[in-house]
Amino acid sequence: MIKVTQRSVLRLIHLIFAIPIAGYVYSPFDQIPNYAPAVRFFFLPVIVASGLWMWKGHVLLRLVSKRSN
Hints:
Blueprint: H1 3-26, H2 32-68
């Protein structure tokens, strides 16, 4: 995949998965328990993984390619 396309896809995933977290933060207090498991176990890990990949993915790829040689 072209690096520009990969970064665009990751950015889009990052932004789309942030929408439910904004709903979690700005929802009424009595609605928070309904959102908590999905945000805690699905949306937040996806956002963290995509953010870290956009930030330091090149380092991880370099480490993996050195170990395979």
